Amino acid sequence: xxxxxxxxxxxxxxxxxxxxxxxxxxxxxxxxxxxxxxxxxxxxxxxxxxxxxxxxxxxxxxxxxxxxxxxxxxxxxxxxxxxxxxxxxxxxxxxxxxxxxxxxxxxxxxxxxxxxx
Amino acid sequence: xxxxxxxxxxxxxxxxxxxxxxxxxxxxxxxxxxxxxxxxxxxxxxxxxxxxxxxxxxxxxxxxxxxxxxxxxxxxxxxxxxxxxxxxxxxxxxxxxxxxxxxxxxxxxxxxxxxx
Lengths: 117, 116
What we know:
The complex is a heterodimer of chains A (about 120) and B (about 120). Chain A is mostly beta strands. Chain A is built from no helices and 11 strands. In chain A, strands 2, 4, 5, 6, 9, 10 and 11 form a 7-stranded mixed beta sheet that branches. A 4-stranded antiparallel beta sheet of chain A has the order 1-3-8-7, with no helix packed on it. Chain B has about 120 residues and is mainly beta. Helices cover about 0% and strands about 50% of the residues of chain B. Chain B contains no helices and 12 strands. In chain B, strand 10 and strand 11 form a beta hairpin. The relative contact order of chain B is 0.34. At the A-B interface, strand 4, strand 5, strand 9 and strand 10 of A face strand 5, strand 6, strand 10 and strand 11 of B.
């Protein structure tokens, strides 16, 4: 069973640049989540997809952030005009579920660590 | 509002000691799930255990056991006979059933160091 895959593992960029991260969930999982984790903190929810539909967004997801999951498989998270405060680990998770998917645990990828110079 | 509190920030033990990680949660939902995840130095969050709000039966799974008490809103996790490989940051998390996304709300984590 292939786990959740994220690319790249690390990204270093200058303030003001745009960055895009990719997440490939476990193949049969229809739910996909993005979280952000800063040093010394637990992950914080950013957004959620069920298949290709983005159904929930956190207030943490400013206008500079956009996420897509065009075919209900992989997802991308783009940050435009990056700021120092965007430096964090961005985690992707997936789970399976239909009407009763609530009980399925989320499985996480290794994350993409973003550093803004 | 959902909230998870892990009062301990860091614990250091010697191998083979038992260690208990505390977790207190807040939720207004009557249906919810509680989780423990482990994050080793490599960074990946690893799912350990899950409990639903209707089942307060405490269980043991290998060296792991948990104590879920709705009366005190606590979900404590014990590692028996700790090993060096248990060294990691441990997160308690809550997921509400009524929210639709079942997003996870995490505590701040507790760093466990097991020394040989």
